[in-house]
Each structure stands twice: as structure tokens, then as C-alpha cells.
UniProtKB/TrEMBL annotation:
It comes from Salimicrobium salexigens. InterPro entries: ATP-grasp, ATP_grasp_subdomain_1, CPAse_ATP-bd. Gene3D superfamilies: ATP-grasp fold, A domain (3.30.1490.20), ATP-grasp fold, B domain (3.30.470.20). Keywords: ATP-binding, Ligase, Nucleotide-binding. Transmembrane segments: none annotated. The lineage of its organism: Bacteria, Bacillati, Bacillota, Bacilli, Bacillales. This is D-aspartate ligase. Residues 124-322 form the ATP-grasp domain. GO terms for molecular function: ligase activity.
Amino acid sequence: MLKQQPFIPVVLGANIGTYSIVRSFHEAYNVKSISLSKQTAGPIDKSSIIVPMTEKSMGEEDVLLAKLKKIGSMYPDQPKILIGSNDWHIESIVDFHGKLGDDWVIPYVDNQTLQKIIHKTSFYDICEKVGVPYPKYTYLNDDASPGDDVNFSFPVVIKPTDRALYESTDFEGKKKVFICENREELEDVTARLKKAGLHKSVILQEYVPGDDSAMRILTLYVGQDGETKLASYGQVLLEDHTPGGRGNPLAIRTFSNDEVVEHAKKIVEHTGFTGIANFDIKYDQRDGKYKFFELNPRLGRSNYYMTVGGHNPVEYYVEEHLQKREITPVKAENEKLYTVVPKKLLLKYIADSELKKTIKRMFKENKAINPMFNFSVEKSPKRRFYVYASTMNFYKKFKQHPPFEKE
């Protein structure tokens, strides 16, 4: 089947973001994708649109490169487009420019440009230069203590500046992001970070108040000519609150916001960034500004919100890199709902009454879509069982790890 396709997407990863990318390719071009991961996890298992491949040591760049070359030799006469769904994937992929054959498309910037934007501190320096709002932050010193210039109060957020390094290091009580309510919690976390040798790879950031619905997501596709071809914006309604998934959007309402888009354009134009730029943003009710937290140089875990909103992001990769077409800029404006959690659970955690009415209306108008509910294509009974079971498991997750009451 793959050998009859006009091109082959090769997607690194095995999470829901990986499946969403594969589904988007299938919907746009009726092609199957190869997934490459350390193991075949539930979100991609028994999918009829994925040819799964595994490599336990793919975290080592030379092993990953060899595996990709092997895939290339299996399909030598077809273009292959390489997509990553995690941060460390992208850091590896950008080093493969020129190391894979001409039949491979690597739609990511060079390593120098990448490093400018993926580390929190350099990203905030860029925000400062171009006049984009961002949260206050400071570093830990050699003793893993806050510097003397801390000018914000508890709670404080501790997050990695080098996410690829952070993801590859394990330590006791590890979380994706730490929120410390007091000095005692801060000292406990920083001690663990120092023991793991990570205290120089994190920052302390002010906590911007607001529940999950204060979060925003924006994804741009920036063409090779530097022009923004797509701006897809959304309001996060509910996030994951488990230690390993803290902050991952679980439900997003799509619409548009010109102010946020213009801020994002300043950042990509200043850096010369091209390709997919995925921004994490939070509305700060204290000053009415949208604070930019980070830029992810890839399609995010919840990337299917873009397809739900009517603008399939993989089409931009294919049109520009494979079909060599000129892309007309568009702004996504449709109001749709991306969700991977049950309706009842989502509505339970939406505090704003008007927003809750809006979401109820969207469900009633059939504007809500779950990327995993693809049963017209996916016929496997075992896969169907997994999808339903993993969706209902969110009730257990939120019982164990509910959103913070103070939010």
C-alpha cells in the first residue's frame, strides 16, 4: 500500500499528537503514515492508517538516523516527509539536514535558529526586544536557590529551559512543571533538581492567575519566504493536571484573535523562523495582557484543533515542500470544539456560566470533535475499546488530580 502512495509521512512518536498528525495526512491525501517510536502505545496501536515501526534506542541520534536511512532504502522512489511530535524529536531532526537523501523532506529550521527560540530565557529576550508581553522570571544560582532579583511572590512556577534534556532525565517526584505554593515546597523541589543536575536548566517564573480557560493556543505556519500563511487560534478550556502531563490541552475552542496573532508575527519575523510555530499563551486578568510563555517549533499534542477548525496543517507542509505551490495566507476564524474528554467532565470544570452555555451550544450543533473517534476509518474492535476506555479514564485522572481550587 505504501509503495503506491505519492509520498510517505514518517511521524516520530506514539502519543495522541502523533495519531492526530497521521489522521490529518489521511484526511487530506488518503495516505497511510509510518510511525516510529520506542514502543507501540495505545493511541497508535491497531490503527488502519499507520504502519508502526519501533526502535528502543531511537533517543540516540546515530541509531535514529540509521533507522530512517533503512526506511528510506525500503521506499527509495518516493518522497518522504519527516515529522516529529516531541521536542527532542525536533532537536534530532534538525541535525539530519543533508544526512538523509534528497527524497526526504525535513520541514524544520536549522539548529542555530531553533536554539534561539526553544530555550525559555532566549525566547523571553526576544519578547522583550520586540515588545511582546511575557511573565516575570529568574534563575536558580549555583546553590539551587533563587537569585536576589526575585520580584514576584508565591506561588511560583518551575519549568525547564531545555525541555529535551529535562525529558531525558529521571528523578524522584518528577513533574512536567512544578507549582510551588511556599518557600518549603520551593526548597524541596530545587533540592531534587540539584541532585539530578538540572538546577541550571530551569527557571522560576511568576504564576499568572487564572484557571485553565485563561490559557490560549496559537499555531502559525510561516512560509519559506517569511510570510505567515496560517494563524490558528484557540481558547483552552481544560488542561491535563497529572504530574507527567501538566498543561497539555484537553479541550480547545477555536476562533480568532488579531492582537495575539500580531504579537506572534513579531517573534517569528525577528528570528527568521519558518514552518510551524506553536505558542503557549495565558491571558493575565491583572493587566489585560496576553503573556507569551513559549514557542514550540512543531505541531503540538493537540494539533488536531487546527484541522477541527477547518485548516489542516499538514497541507501546508505538502503544498510548500512537495508540491511547490504558492500558499495564499489565511486566518482561521471558525468556531469549533476540539476535545478528548467526555462532555460531562468538560462542562463540570468550566466555571464561567456564559462560556459553559457556549460549549453546550457547540455540542448541540455537532461542532465538537475528538481526534481519536475516527471509527468510520478505524474498524478494529480492540482499538475501539481502547479509545472508549482511555476517554472514560479521564474521570479517574481528574478525581486523582483535579484542577487547583485556587484557580
